[in-house]
Design brief:
Layout lengths: L1 E4 L12 H17 L5 E8 L7 H13 L4 E4 L12 E2 L5 E2 L13 H14 L3 E2 L3 E4 L6 H4 L13 E4 L1 H7 L1 E3 L2 E3 L5 E2 L1 E4 L8 H12 L3 E3 L13 H11 L6 E4 L2 E4 L4 H7 L6 E3 L8 E7 L4 E7 L5 E7 L4 E6 L6 E3 L2 E4 L2 E8 L4 E9 L4 E2 L7 E6 L3 E5 L8 E4 L11 H4 L4 E10 L10 E4 L2 E3 L1 E6 L2 E6 L5 E3 L7 E10 L3 H6 L10 E2 L14 E4 L1 E5 L1
Parallel strand pairs: 1-2, 2-3, 4-36, 7-8, 7-12, 12-13, 13-15
Antiparallel strand pairs: 2-5, 6-17, 9-10, 10-11, 14-15, 16-19, 17-18, 18-24, 19-23, 20-21, 20-24, 22-23, 22-25, 26-38, 27-28, 27-29, 29-35, 30-34, 30-38, 31-37, 32-33, 32-35
Helix pairs in contact: 6-7
Length: 536
């Protein structure tokens, strides 16, 4: 188990701090090497941003944990809330994620929990695929060594950290592969610069591995940290293994690469990257996890940018059809693909901060397949006015009319301006006959939402949307003529907590310590739109 905090609290910026990535990967490496299937972490911990997190805002942190090997979330923090008249309630000092039953979106949390659960379940299956076992030495812990910068692993390859105990007791070599009893299979044992001070037992084991066929890449050890090690034996072994300190040394059935980058070593071994992708923009950034079962291989792919990415991904898999599995919805889609030279290329359409599983499980009937994707056609923009009713006992009026979609926090009515909770937008939408075409899908696209929304059309709930794109399929419930649409939008506690700090405010909230001032910035809230009807 490890830990990961949200960015922006203890660590400035919008990216998860490097030390947390290293921490999670260390726990994952332990699980992979020692034969465990669960990798947990205290997850999404926050400070300095009380009750300011929605599932959409948490997802990039959760996905970064998954990308580094996590498959069980222990959400921080779930303080007991014994009463209903003190909201949002008790806390653990300044620390959160404030994941309790009094969170504004507690009743809408199901889809977010399902996303985490589906992702974790999938990533508990099979065995992790990695090409590099990374030995980091014997005298420092991983977060000290890699707290600012992770190992320089070539893009498209994955790796596990290896310590002295695992190296000595669990690694073996045969036919150019390094294996463990748990089933891990690596192509290269990489030695970090920190390992140049190397104990004799580790050096002996490396010599044994190389003679049995292992590939080792890294600098020549310069000394041993142990006063009891045999210096002559140490010198003899290093001389044998690193006879050429800037080239390739053939020793027994294996090789030692010195003075070369890991990228060059893998190229010389003709090991193709496990995962590659085109870059529509310079900063296109994807992360991946590859797991393998007896008859199935799958990749978890994560878009690290808050924008749509249309690209082509290449997987080190052949002979199987490609499918896209969506952990947010459970939907499985057949994907286009082409197979050649031991690789499979798959076009991917990734929405902002998307994460999908690309699954290879069925034998391919041909070396390529094209699935036609229907483009969106905008049918109408749904304009105001909207009737909006607000959750009781939160300081807002029972009902208001919005001539256009504007943020609650910009409203002149202080009850709306500082409202936190659920506001229900209601409108009747006329659907003409030309909207309906056989085989076409109709969607209600909400545009921008702060922060979650449940959509109900003609009395039927179509579920909760919690991230971009905020859209629901209305094909089965929309009818020609008039349709009653309700959109229940839930924002965060922050605005009401600030509202309660205003002079003369009728207090709604209770917290065990103050988190916001009267002049703290309000958060955008409500249905911001534009709301559109779309067909594809």
């Amino acid at each position: 188990m490890s830990a990961t905090w949200t960015p922006g609290g203890l660590d400035p910026g919008t990216e998860v701090a490097t030390r947390y990535k290293a921490d999670v990967r260390e726990s994952a490496s332990v699980a992979h090497i020692y034969g465990q299937n669960l990798v947990a972490a205290e997850s999404m911990t926050a400070i300095g941003s009380a009750w300011a997190w929605s599932p959409e805002l948490l997802k990039p942190t959760a996905d970064m944990e998954l990308a580094n090997g996590l498959n069980r979330f222990v959400i921080h923090t779930s303080v007991h809330q014994p009463v209903d008249d003190k909201i949002p309630g008790l806390g653990l000092g300044p620390f959160g994620q404030w994941f309790t039953r009094h969170e504004t979106w507690a009743e809408q949390a199901g889809p977010w929990m399902t996303y985490l659960a589906r992702s974790c379940y999938m990533l508990q299956q099979g065995e992790f695929v990695a090409d590099v076992a990374y030995f980091y030495g014997e005298d420092n812990n991983i977060t000290a060594l890699f707290g600012e910068k992770l190992p320089a692993i070539p893009e498209g390859f994955n790796y596990d950290f290896v310590n002295a105990d695992a190296l000595i007791n669990l690694l073996s070599a045969s036919k150019g592969r390094i294996t463990t009893p748990s089933g891990m299979n690596y192509r290269v044992l990489a030695l970090d610069a920190n390992s140049t001070q190397m104990s004799l037992p580790v050096l002996r084991k490396i010599s044994e591995l190389v003679n049995a066929g292992a590939i080792v890449a890294g600098p020549k050890p310069v000394g041993t940290p142990s006063l009891s090690d045999n210096q002559q034996e140490f010198a003899t072994l290093t001389a044998q293994l690193w006879a050429n300190e800037n080239g390739v040394n053939v020793v027994g059935k294996g090789k030692v690469y010195a003075g070369q980058s890991l990228t060059d070593v893998l190229k010389s071994l003709e090991v193709m990257p496990d995962f590659q992708y085109t870059r529509p923009q310079d900063n296109t950034n994807l992360m991946f996890v590859h797991r393998k079962m007896e008859q199935v291989e799958f990749y978890w792919i994560n878009n690290r940018n808050n924008r749509v990415e249309d690209l082509e991904a290449t997987f080190r898999v052949e002979g199987k059809e490609a499918e896209i599995w969506h952990p947010e919805t459970g939907k499985i889609e057949q994907a286009s693909y082409s197979i050649a030279d031991g690789l499979t290329k798959v076009p991917l359409h990734l929405v902002p901060h998307d994460a999908v599983f690309v699954v290879f499980r069925n034998k391919a009937k041909s070396t390529s397949r094209t699935i036609e994707i229907q483009a969106d056609k905008e049918l109408a923009v749904v304009e105001g006015p909207w009737k909006v009713s607000f959750q009781e006992n939160r300081g807002a009026p029972a009902e208001a009319t919005f001539d256009a979609l504007t943020a609650w926090n910009d409203n002149s009515d202080k009850g709306v301006k500082y409202f936190s909770g659920t506001g229900t937008y209601t409108k009747t939408i006329g659907a003409p006959a030309e909207w309906f075409q056989e085989g076409a899908q109709l969607w209600l696209d909400l545009g921008d939402v702060k922060n979650l929304a449940e959509v109900i059309v003609n009395g039927k709930s179509l579920g909760i949307v919690w991230k971009q794109p905020f859209r629901v399929n209305v094909t089965e419930v929309l009818k020609q003529g008039e349709n009653v649409v309700e959109i229940k939008v839930t924002n965060l506690w922050v605005n009401r907590l600030i509202g309660d700090q205003q002079p003369g405010a009728a207090r709604v909230t209770y917290t065990t310590m103050p988190f916001y001032r009267a002049n703290s910035p309000l958060l955008p809230s409500g249905l911001l739109g534009p709301v559109r009807m779309v067909r594809n």
